[in-house]
Amino acid sequence: MENSKGNIVSRLSYSFGAFGNDLLFGLLSTYFIMFVTTHLFNSGNKAQDAKMIGFITLIIFFLRFVELAIDPFIGNAIDNTHTRWGKFKPWVVVGGVLGPAALVILFTDFGGLTKSNPMLYLILFAILYIMMDILYSFKDIAFWSMIPALSFDSREREKTATFARIGSNIGGGTIGIVVMPLVLLFSLNANQGTGDSRGWFWFALIIGCAAALSAVVVGLGTKEVDSDLRKNKKPTTFKGVFHVLMHNDQLMWLSLAYGLYAIGMSLTNSFELYYFTFILGDASKFSILALINTIVGLAAISIFPALAKKWNRRNVFLVAIALMLIGLAVFSLANSSLILVLVAAELFFIPQPLIFLVALMTITDSVEYGQLKLGHRDESLTLSVRPLLDKLAGAISNLVVGITAVAASMTAGATAATMTNHDRFIFKFAMLGVPAVFILVGAFVFFKKVKLDEKMHASIVDELERTWAKDFDSDDESESTGSRPNSKTELSYYAPVAGEVIPLEQVSDTVFSTGSMGRGFAIKPSDGRVYAPFDGIIEATFSTRHTVGLVSENKIATLIHIGIGTVKMKGTGFITYFEPGQRVSQGELLIDFWSPAIKKAGLDDTVIAVITNSDNLSEFEIENKGEVTKNDIVLTLEKK
């Protein structure tokens, strides 16, 4: 009960951390550039103000690219952190408190330097901005890397990730809801609904304090699980990410498709508050859109599994892209109609969580694709690609927003009434036309080049299962397990699950029944718990969680496969309690599975156990053919 209470506290703390993380992300990526272009520079000299906005925009663009190159080194620094509080929490707290503080200072003119000494202001701005961005990256990378460190239980990880997605969505929506009410509340001059610099500063201060508080809550409310498995990892480098991209063609094409889409999506999202301010002429109405987005975003996340199951991911992606393009078309016709603007914005927004999940799941599947193609697993490198693409899209988006704000005269003192038809055309082209091109090209690349779907991934996993243990017949020291040579040749193989033992030949999957995967047996399970059949090292894991590969110290390799065709379930109904490379003892719980879920999917729940290198055995004797439990020996094995 105490453990359950601790898990709930951890989930809620992490969820609040995600809430604060997205508050800060919104403040940095969307609303800071709005402040820069419309309120920071107000000298009365429009040419000078436009010039300063251009300099700031270029500085931000350049520094964001510098920070992208630094990211891998930040990840390595976090990996090599060892404190009594863990490796992630110190960076979450330090970066999560100092980063917002630096960003809040950037919402000022540094005591009037923008007018009295513009050059000094630009120098100080660049220094403070890169410091802030690095601190933010330390916090962001550490925060999203924490989930595996919070629990070895895959179900607990999924719950934590789900709570985080909810907190993240609410955080991203909340800042949109409160931005203009807070700005106008603290402004001395409403400026026809756009507020003043004082109002923007107090808005940044409140959001910064909330973000900092959320980081402290993560530090106090979560506990990292210490494990040797996370030590001495191969460093992630920018060169390493590039190498993986160049050799994993599916990841490369998906990255290109998602990167183009992300640029288009970020552009339109960043311009929405400008639309309410300079086209509708009422920035306060933006809160209505943000509130609707928050509710709709939560609904979109919840319906994705059902949509993906019914239509498959490629069809979900197709429908989502079509809706976004329709939304852009409606936006182009909306002009000053609030109803049409809200309809257009929702048509554009609803698909975004769906496309994100499609991209995330396909990138995850590309881990196994790369493993099959390249012969090694690059999980951390592969999964680091998507955050890099999002940051790249944000950097490009900020550059285009800054240039457009100057070109369309949306700077200090501008209002909807001062916008000319030419200004509106420039703005709409940047907000609607340019994103449409990026999204269309990204979609074309996805459908033309990305072939990795659910069916292909299932066949890849099947192939990896067949081939993963073919090399475990060496008498040399194993690099992956670190085990020492063992002169013992005999091995007792205990039942991995309780139930009735049946001959392998009776299994309905010919891949197993013909013996092509190795000799073994099957069990009709009477419960849903899979245990380690002997002492060994976890050598093969899959994102689908329906199978596990285990190698003994004398190099006997076994594959335990739950159900037939269960790779299609994509991990639903399976809970794992191990990490790759983990040393386990006989009888240790490895997997929980839910037979009703397997049967509901129309699949067989038979548990299959094979010795994948059985050709290297001189003895293979089945000791038990009836009902067994985890304490019963089923096989006696001896190496040649």
UniProtKB/TrEMBL annotation:
Q: What is its main location?
A: membrane
One GO cellular-component annotation of the UniProt record comes to: plasma membrane
**Residue ranges occupied by any PTS EIIA type-1 domain in the UniProt entry:** 509-613
Membrane topology designation: Multi-pass membrane protein
Q: Which GO terms describe its biological process?
A: phosphoenolpyruvate-dependent sugar phosphotransferase system; sodium ion transport
The record's listing under Pfam families reads: MFS_2, PTS_EIIA_1
Q: Which UniProt keywords apply?
A: Cell membrane, Membrane, Phosphoprotein, Phosphotransferase system, Sugar transport, Symport, Transferase, Transmembrane, Transmembrane helix, Transport
Q: Which family does it belong to?
A: In the N-terminal section; belongs to the sodium:galactoside symporter (TC 2.A.2) family.
Decide whether keyword GTP-binding is in the record. no
Bilayer-spanning residue ranges: 12-33, 53-70, 91-113, 119-138, 166-188, 200-221, 251-268, 288-308, 315-333, 339-363, 396-419, 425-447
Name of the protein in its database record? PTS sugar transporter subunit IIA
The places in or outside the cell where this protein is found are: Cell membrane
Q: Which SUPFAM superfamilies match?
A: Duplicated hybrid motif (SSF51261), MFS general substrate transporter (SSF103473)
Report the Gene3D superfamilies cross-referenced here: Glucose Permease (Domain IIA), MFS general substrate transporter like domains
What is the organism of origin for this protein?
Paenibacillus durus ATCC 35681
Return the PANTHER family for the record. MAJOR FACILITATOR SUPERFAMILY DOMAIN-CONTAINING PROTEIN (PTHR11328), MELIBIOSE PERMEASE (PTHR11328:SF36)
Cross-referenced CDD domains, in alphabetical order? MFS_MelB_like
